[in-house]
Amino acid sequence: MRKTSGRRFDLGQLQISHDRVNDLLLPAWAETPEDFIHQHRKALVRVLQILDSINCSDMMFL
User: Fold this and answer.
1) What is the structure's pLDDT at 47?
2) 11, 22 in Cβ contact below 8 A?
3) Looking at the DSSP assignment, which residues form a beta bridge with residue 25?
4) pLDDT tens column, 17-42
5) What is the pLDDT of residue 37?
6) How far is CA 29 from the centre of its chain?
7) Is 26 exposed, middle or buried (0-12, 13-18, 19+ CB in 10 A)?
8) SS3 of 41, please?
9) Plot region of 21 (φ>0 → left; ψ -120 to 50 → alpha; else → beta)
10) pLDDT, position 38
11) Quick check: pTM over 0.70?
12) Residues contacting 22, CB < 8 A, separation 6+
């Protein structure tokens, strides 16, 4: 059975059926909703670090 966030957030409604969306299925790699957020934040930080290092190396060769 897939894990859900269990938080009952108001996430809007579906476009066609207009059913309310108030919970989400977590991917298999996320143990908890907090873990899901933590993993995404880590990934975003990595992307920002890579972009920052590219910008720094560009400035070195100007």
Assistant:
1) 84
2) yes
3) 4
4) 998 887 778 888 888 888 888 998 99
5) 87
6) 13
7) middle
8) helix
9) beta
10) 92
11) no
12) 8, 9, 10, 11
